[in-house]
Specification:
Blueprint (H helix, E strand, L loop, with lengths): L3 H11 L6 E6 L1 H4 L5 H13 L4 E5 L10 H7 L4 H10 L16 H7 L5 E2 L7 E4 L3 H5 L13 H7 L3 E5 L11 H4 L6 E9 L5 E9 L6 H11 L5 E5 L2 E7 H16 L1
Parallel strand pairs: 1-2, 1-5
Antiparallel strand pairs: 2-4, 3-4, 5-9, 6-7, 8-9
Helix pairs in contact: 1-3, 3-6, 10-11
Length: 263
C-alpha cells in the first residue's frame, strides 16, 4: 500500500510544480492501493501543488443530455411509456448537489466535495477547482460553450495550465475539444437537459451548442506523443503510468493536425 508521501514523491519526480494549475484526469484503480484510498490521492495531489497551486477536475454529467452516447445507451429499446418514465427519473442537475458522473471517476467526485471547492455552472460539462484560481476558472460557464472559449477549458488553455493523466492516455485530456470550436465548418446542434429550479422543482431546458466528437481522439493521442516528446513527461504515480502535458501546446498541435486531416 502506497503512503501519501510516496505519491507526493512520485508527483515531484514526474514534474508537478508547487503553485501551478493542474487538471487531473485519473483512473484510481491504476494507481493501486493507497493509504486512505481516494482521500490519500487527493492529499498527495494537493501536497505536490502546495498552498499556491490549484487542482482542477472534470465533474461532467453527460447522462443529462438527450444527445449523449450515455443517454442513448440507457434508453435503447425502451417503449414510449418506459422512455417517459426514464425521463421522470432523471435527476435534475444542481451545481451544489449533483454528483459527477461515475464515468468521470471517483477522484473527480472527491474533489467536488472538498470544502471550498468551486464548480462551474454547466449541467453537462462542469469543472471543479480548489485553490487560488478556482473562482477565476469556474466563475463563468455559459451553456452554449460546453468546452469552448467561454468555458473553464479555455481558461486552462490561456492560463498555462497542464493536464496530468493518471493511468489514462494523453488523448483523454478534455480541453483538446477546444479545437472543434476553432473549425470553420463546426456543426451546431440542440441540447436538452433537466435542471433543478430555485424552488426545488424540475425543468427541462433546451439550448444550442457546438456538436462535439471524440472518435478522432485516439489517433490524435499518437500525434501528441510524437509531436511533443520533450514536453510530455511520462512516469509512475503508484502503479499507474502517467502523462504530464501542457494544455496550450497540446491543443495547438492537435488543432493543426485536425485541420490538415480535414483538408
Amino acid at each position: 500500500m502506497y503512503a501519501v508521501s510516496e505519491l507526493v514523491a512520485d508527483l515531484d519526480r514526474l514534474g508537478v510544480r508547487p503553485g501551478e494549475t493542474l487538471l487531473v484526469q485519473a483512473s484510481l484503480r491504476a494507481v493501486g492501493p493507497v493509504a486512505d484510498g481516494v482521500h490519500g490521492v487527493v492529499r498527495a495531489l494537493r501536497g505536490a501543488l502546495g498552498a499556491d497551486g490549484t487542482l482542477v477536475v472534470y465533474t461532467a454529467t453527460p447522462e443529462n443530455s438527450r444527445t449523449s452516447s450515455y443517454y442513448r445507451a440507457a434508453v435503447a429499446g425502451l417503449t414510449p411509456a418506459q422512455l417517459r418514465e426514464h425521463h421522470d427519473r432523471m435527476p435534475a442537475w444542481d451545481a451544489a448537489d449533483t454528483p459527477a458522473s461515475p464515468t468521470m471517476g471517483r477522484l473527480a467526485e472527491e474533489v467536488r466535495l472538498l470544502p471550498g471547492a468551486r464548480r462551474s455552472g454547466h449541467p453537462q460539462t462542469s469543472f471543479t477547482a480548489i485553490g487560488p484560481r478556482a473562482g477565476e476558472l469556474t466563475g463563468r460557464h455559459p451553456w452554449h460553450s460546453h468546452l469552448g472559449e467561454d468555458s473553464p477549458a479555455h481558461r486552462l488553455y490561456e492560463g498555462g495550465a497542464r493536464c496530468l493523466m493518471i493511468g489514462v492516455p494523453v488523448w483523454c485530456c478534455t480541453p483538446l475539444h477546444l479545437l472543434e470550436y476553432w473549425q470553420p465548418d463546426r456543426e451546431e446542434q440542440q441540447y436538452r437537459c433537466v435542471v433543478r429550479t430555485p424552488d426545488g422543482g424540475r425543468e427541462w431546458r433546451s439550448f444550442t451548442g457546438t456538436r462535439l466528437h471524440d472518435e478522432h481522439f485516439p489517433e490524435m493521442g499518437e500525434v501528441l506523443a510524437a509531436g511533443l516528446p520533450e514536453l510530455i513527461a511520462t512516469g509512475p504515480v503508484g502503479d499507474a503510468r502517467c502523462h504530464l502535458m501542457p494544455i496550450r501546446e497540446a491543443v495547438d498541435l492537435a488543432d493543426k493536425w485536425y485541420r490538415n486531416r480535414q483538408s
